[in-house]
Amino acid sequence: MINISLYTIGIIMSKKCELTGKIPMKGHNVSHANNKTKRRFLPNLKKVTFKSGLLKRTLKITVSNAGVRSVDKKGSFDEFLKTVKNKNLSPRLKKLKKSLLIKSPFQKKSVQSKTV
């Protein structure tokens, strides 16, 4: 009999946003009598499908509502991945960002000099 951990298969998933790194917070339920019982504040996670224009593929990612809004603000999933810090991303998206930066055309920011 083979003993395989559920963690290695990937069945058990953490309650963490893959884009922003949001995780559950701890706190208390406080009653009217000021009794405190422990509770968890879970992030608002959804399974969202994003399309990558440069990589020409779709990705199904567990994302918080704040993560979806951040991608929407940047304009596209590719633009968001280019600008986000690596420490917030999941390992899967770090690999994706690396391949995205390789495939993206070199964009030089134009620096405007101030003339006084």
CATH topology: Ribosomal Protein L24e, Chain: T
Strand content: 15-25%
Query: What series of H and E elements makes up the topology?
Result: HEEEEHHH
Largest sheet: 2 strands, antiparallel
Number of helices, counting only DSSP H or I runs of 4 residues or more: 4
Looking at the structure, what is the overall shape?
elongated
CATH class: Mainly Beta
User: In the CATH hierarchy, what is the superfamily?
Assistant: Ribosomal protein L28/L24
What is the total domain count? 1
Broad structural category: alpha+beta
**Neighbour order of strands in the largest sheet:** 1-2
Question: Which helices and strands appear, and what pairs or packs with what?
Answer:
Blueprint: H1 6-9, E1 25-30, E2 36-41, E3 45-52, E4 57-64, H2 65-74, H3 77-83, H4 91-103
Antiparallel strand pairs: 1-2, 3-4
